[in-house]
Amino acid sequence: MARRKFFCMWLAGWAMLASAAAQDYKLVWSDEFDRDGRPDEKYWNFEEGYARNEELQWYQQDNAYCRDGLLVIEARKEHRPNPLYRRDGQDWRTSRPYVECTSSSLTTAGKFEFTYGRLEVRARIPVAKGAWPAIWTLGSRMEWPSCGEIDVMEFYRIQGRPVIMANAAWGTDKRWEARWDSQATPLSHFLEQNPDWASEFHVWRMDWTEEAVRLYLDDELLNEIFLADTYNGTWGEGKNPFASSHYILLNLAVGGINGGPVSEEAWPMRYEIDYVRVYQ
After folding, report:
1. Strand pairing of 149-158 and 161-171?
2. Share of the chain residues as helix, strand and coil, in percent rounded to the nearest 5
3. Residue 16 lies in a domain
């Protein structure tokens, strides 16, 4: 009994210290999306066109808007000529005659970057087949992957099973070849705890220190990446990309290498973000 009481006291004390440590954080940047219309261009850039991973969507600014205190990123089924198309197109961007769907990708590149701290994003994600929403960061000092990538959240399917991903990537000795530290948590894990999970908002959090990057979903630790293990290979000059500044990306991709086949019932897909906050 005495041992149990001591453990309970220790646990309570640890929780108080953790709470106190959390209170030491100060808000240094945020967007609460408390305006109607276009997202604030003081904070956000917009990717345009086809971006990466052989995804289906054409990114454009029109698919992102603020309404009722939310940023909404909407993927829509469309059919129009692909302006990049060439009859002899040699890659996936130029070989498609038509754009089949559109979406948006927002980044803070050149407008806000940070090194270490806490990133919190409260969002409701689409979980339909083919949806690939993400919250992530990239370094700005080198090309990918030596710049470093942190995927605070990705959702897609692996072998038909929907998963929540929490990842980091950095460079190796070969150009454009990444080393990954990835954790895939089945969506079923969250649905077993709450059958309404997919219809509700959740908080994704990154705690980034000189020691580690820790990725959480509703305070549940999903992955822990120690910076002692994240040095680039020779192509990235042996540097640690998680010891320098990163910018934030929010996007809704469709299909592609990881998104996979798209359900016709999925359209339109809506990815809703309540806020983005950075503390240091």
Report:
1. antiparallel
2. 20, 45, 35
3. no
Region 167-182: mean pLDDT is 97
Catalytic residue among 149, 200, 210, 265: 149
Task: Look at residue 6 and tell me if it is in a domain.
Answer: no
Tokens of 180: 């990954």
Q: Hey, is 51 helix, strand or coil?
A: coil
Number of residues written out for the chain: 280
- Say if residue 54 is exposed, middle or buried (CB neighbours under 10 Å; 0-12, 13-18, 19+): middle
CA Rg value for the chain: 20
Name the pTM for this structure: 0.91
The span from the CA of 167 to the CA of 184, in Å, is 9
Catalytic site includes residue 149: yes
Lowest pLDDT segment from 22-36, 162-176, 222-236: 22-36
In terms of C-beta density within 10 A (0-12 exposed, 13-18 middle, 19 or more buried), how is residue 183 classed?
middle
Catalytic residue among 55, 113, 154, 272: 154
Active site residue 41: no
Examine residue 13 and state whether it is found in any structural domain, yes or no.
no
| Dist CA 251 CA 75 (whole Å) | 10
Looking up residue 74, the CATH number of its domain turns out to be 2.60.120.200
Q: What is the pLDDT of residues 36-79, one digit of tens each?
A: 999 999 999 999 999 999 999 999 999 999 999 999 999 999 99
Q: Considering the domain boundaries, does residue 129 fall inside one?
A: yes
Number of domains composing the chain = 1
For residue 124, what are the domain limits? Answer: 25-279
Q: Are 235 and 241 in contact (CB under 8 A)?
A: no
Element containing residue 269 per DSSP (H, E): strand 269-279
| Token code pair at residue 196 | 């309404």
